[in-house]
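User: Can you predict the 3D structure for this chain?
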Amino acid sequence: MNTNHIIPSQTESTAAPQRQGRKRLMFTTATVAVLLLVAWSTGQDMSSTQPSSTVERANGGNATLVTEGAGSTGTLKMTVNKTTVISTKTPYKRISVGNPEIADVNPIGPASILVTAKKPGSTQLIIWDDADRSQVLDILVNFDLASLNEQLRLMFPGSKIEAIDANGAIALRGHVPSLEVSQQAMTIAGPYGKVANFLDVSGGQQVMLQVRFAEVSRAATSALGVNFGYADGVSAGASNVGQVNPFSNISGQPGNIAAASASPSVTLFGTGQIGSATFAVFISALRQNNLLRVLAEPNLVAISGQEATFLAGGEFPVPIAQNGGGGGTGGTTITVEFKKFGVQLTFVPIVLGEGRIRLKCSPEVSDLDFTNAVVTSGFRIPALTTRTLSTTVELADGQTFALAGLLNSRYAANADITPLLGDMPVLGALFRSVRYERKETELVVLVTPRLVEAMNPEHVPLLPGEHWRYPTEAELFWNRDLGGPITTKPDAPSTQPTKGAPAKFHGSYGFTPSEAKTQHAAAE
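Assistant: Here is the predicted structure, written as structure tokens:
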């Protein structure tokens, strides 16, 4: 039986192991590629969901926890009395606000916070999560200027008023027709906070105040009194009723009768002797009339809202004694203090608009009164008769207001009578002393405010004594001409001396044109 064996060739036995090796290599390469792709995608997902420590350190440790309610820069801008809600992407652990007076925070959920603005300013809010990561938010609280500007626009449609934030305060700027509108705008903006007024008031702002003092004072005095005394060597007597000039030394010796020196109130006095009797008589018989008239018209110009003061008068010295001076020896040192007198005016005008002016004025007129002077340490210090007032009024441009008025009538009568003797007819006048005084005073103070502007040069009038007529020596000595003001403006300058040239000047004076200009004008 024949058996056939098939023997494989050497080429076929070598190719099979090579194909199996290539398959294993391709499978290994594909597996490694798949693993690398999975690892790369996993790393991208982790980097997108979890911030790296390197990034947090670059941001100063301020993690991004807030997702809604704050800007991209981490700043929360609010207005007063407004609220907002901020949300975090993960539940927060705790919160803290820097200044609770500016903003108030309240948790309303595990990932929600309610923020309320209380007053203008800036503060910070810090939020921590469970991993102790934190984020800092800047909170800026501003005034509700939009609401304020809308109120100002509705209240004053004819004015241009704008409210702006000026470093924690409200600044009002623009133009208003009157000061009253400016004050009303300040009142409206007051509840919003501190207000600075930069509003311009339209119209004339310079006020001239004309004040007129007019006073007439009349006084009448009638007095009659008699003091007499006698001495005859046996008896003596005197009548001192009314204390006209009382006797103080009377004795029974003849001729020994004396009294103090005659007082200023005594108008008649005399002494005499009849036989051995000596007598003396002092009589005060007075009729006096006084009249005083004062008319003062001070004028003063000031800008609206500014105080102006005017004084036409002077100051008089008042000596003041101070103990303990004299270089520590316990003596008295006299110092001098000056007091003002005359016509004085102080006022503050406020232009309200539409020709209305509010005035706070304090006029005063004072005179030296030597009849009521005080004599001390050899110095005679006069008294002051003062008429003053202080008030605030409101009136239109050019109107006149009587600020004060006085009508005073005073009567005084005094009678000193010796009982029984003073009641006798005729002779009773020797034992009576009577005095009657009557004084009447009329005073009125008028004010007139006017809105004024500066004058152009051609409108300026001549000043008192600006152009003066000087007399010559002949006019001065023979005609007793002392000169006087020139009431009209002088004509164009002349090359010849005028008649009113001052005596101390010789030759031509004033403006003299040059010869070249004179010849050129003559040639033309």
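The first helix runs from residue 10 to 49. The chain has a mean pLDDT of 76.
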